[in-house]
Amino acid sequence: MKIMPVQKQTRAGQRTRYKAFVAVGDFNGHIGLGVKCAKEVATAIRGGIIAAKLSLVPVRRGYWGNKIGEPHTVPMKVSGKCGSVLVRLVPAPRGTAIVGAPTTKKMLQFAGVKDCFTSSRGCTKTRGNFMLAIFAALKSTYAYLTPDLWKEYSFTPSPYKQFSDFLAVTNSKVTV
Questions:
Q1: Is 173 among the domain residues?
Q2: How far is Cα 74 from Cα 117, in angstroms, rounded to an integer?
Q3: Are 64 and 74 within 8 A, CB to CB?
Q4: Domain count of the chain?
Q5: What is the pLDDT of residues 81-111, one digit of tens each?
Q6: Does any domain span residue 156?
Q7: Which is nearest to 89 in space by CA: 58, 66, 62, 49?
Q8: pTM above 0.85, yes or no
C-alpha cells in the first residue's frame, strides 16, 4: 500500500533503504498488516507480504438495525491509535458503503466490512501510522465482550466441595 525511502546518516554519507507497508486480507473477516525495510524495493515488498500473513487477525463484523443477511459493518464504535493518528470506526446502515479516506476504504474492504463511517484525527499523511491505527481499530473489534458472546457454563465442583459431606461425617483417622 505504501513504499517509502528511509535514510540513515553514516560516516560515509547516507544509507537509503526502502520501507514497505503491505496489507493482506480475504475480504471475509481477516486482515493482516506487515512492515518491512530492505535495501531493494522487491525485497521489502516480499518481506512485507510475509510479515502481513504472519500478523493476520480476525475482524468481527455486525449489523446496523435489523439482522437480515450477512454481517456488513463493524459491530460497535471502535477506535485505534498509532503516533498522532486516531481512527474511529462507526457502524453504518446497509448500502452506505465505506465513508472515509482511500487508505481506510482499502483496508476495510480487505477486512470484509462493506458499510462504515470513519473519522480520523492527527497527521494522516504519514500513511504508515494511519494504516497501523486502522489495523489497531479492526483488531479491537474482538476486544469487547457483547451479550451475544455470553455463554452459560456449567462448572464441575471442586473436589473439596464435592467430597465435603463425606469428610464431615467420617470421624475415623486415616493413616497414609
A1: no
A2: 9
A3: no
A4: 1
A5: 999 999 999 999 999 999 999 999 999 999 9
A6: no
A7: 62
A8: no
